[in-house]
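Acid-resistance membrane protein, Prochlorococcus marinus. Tokens?
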Amino acid sequence: MTVDERQDSLVTFKAFAIAEGIVLIVLGVLALIFPVVAASWTTGLIAVLFLVGGIVGWISNLARSSRMARWVCFWRLVLSTLFLVAGASMISYMKNPAEAAVQVATFALAIGIVFLAEGIVAFCTGLAHAKRAGSGWAIANGVITFILGLLIVTMKFWQLLWVLGVLVGISFLFSGIDLIAFSSTLHDDNQPPALT
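Tokens:
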């Protein structure tokens, strides 16, 4: 690979990572703006956020796969798939708005499990790249996302109606900040970066 090709690859890699980070921050802010919406609207909003996050994650990870460690790419694709499956499942159950509160409680466990898995992957990736600038964000993202997952899976039914949107928003915000902070520190050092 020539120097120009490597530089173009790095620029493309950074552009996708920063774009994914911006999308996640915007989605996180939207989730925080609407935390107390009726249960059916909250479920629908979370479903859309998960679908968009999953689609963006797949596109971004495939575009950056040549510059990521294989295990990191694999687990990020698994997480993006979990977001897609969770979002699609939630939308399929939105046919009866009266069941929205039960839907939120049912999917809270799935969302909590996704956050637990995402937190572990982000934390381990941050530790694996601890010498890189910005790895502290990956570690912090992993810890916070894991804690959010624990909070979700241990909540009582009535708490899920308003807290779930806030927790999703916080997780997306930290994931977006993590991506932007880490990718903005990348430079061509002949080492394939691995974002969380």
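The mean pLDDT is 78.
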